Amino acid sequence: MQVVLEKHPSLLAHTVSGNHGTWVLPQVQFADHYMADFLIASRTSAGLHWPLVELESPTKRLTNPGNSRDTRFLHHAVEQIEDRRQWLSFNLGLARRPRDSNGLGLPGITAESHALIIMGRENANDNATDIRDLRFRRGRIEIRTYDRLVRTAAWHDPLG
């Protein structure tokens, strides 16, 4: 899925609103520690926003059958987001510093950046609504299926 989304960044660009521009950056390295599958930069009148994007397999469920709790795959993706946010909280200056000054060149990024996990397929037996709502309320982590990603992209293409 990484390769497909790198070739078709508009599939990710539509997940954010950027009235003054949207950019999709694949495989962003956080120094020698972590790599985000994607960062999406969106510029609005309030400034730049940098959602962190983690991809998981389209074949993995969001919840366990029977108990509607996070699968280990979803739990792992959430931990990856939290690790990157923690790294940002300790290295914000490095992350924001321009590349020509040995930084990552991510102006305006914050340790509280919105996050998006894309995994699984829509499944009537996967009661994941409560999990999605809880993750968003507690940690600003949005969870979408690949089906929703493709369906929403069909409505519009923000990269033109």
pLDDT below 50 for ≥5 consecutive residues: which ranges?
none
Query: Helix- and strand-based class?
Result: alpha/beta
The CATH topology is given as: Trna Endonuclease, Chain: A, domain 1
Question: Which sequence of SSEs, written as H and E, runs from N to C?
Answer: HHEEEEHHEHEH
Number of helices: 6
Major beta sheet, specifics? 6 strands, mixed
Task: Indicate the mean pLDDT.
Answer: 87
Q: Helix amount, in percent? A: 25-40%
Number of domains: 1
User: Oligomeric status of the shown chains?
Assistant: single chain
Spatial separation of the terminal alpha carbons: 21 Å
CATH architecture: 3-Layer(aba) Sandwich
Q: Tell me the name of the CATH class.
A: Alpha Beta
- Strand content is 15-25%
The total of beta strands comes to 6
Explain what you see.
This protein has one domain (2-155): Trna Endonuclease, Chain: A, domain 1, CATH 3.40.1350. It contains 6 helices and 6 strands, in the order H-H-E-E-E-E-H-H-E-H-E-H. The protein has helices at residues 2-7, 10-13, 72-90, 92-96, 129-139, 146-155, and strands at 22-30, 34-44, 47-49, 52-55, 115-118, 141-144. The chain starts with a helix and ends in a 5-residue tail after the last helix.
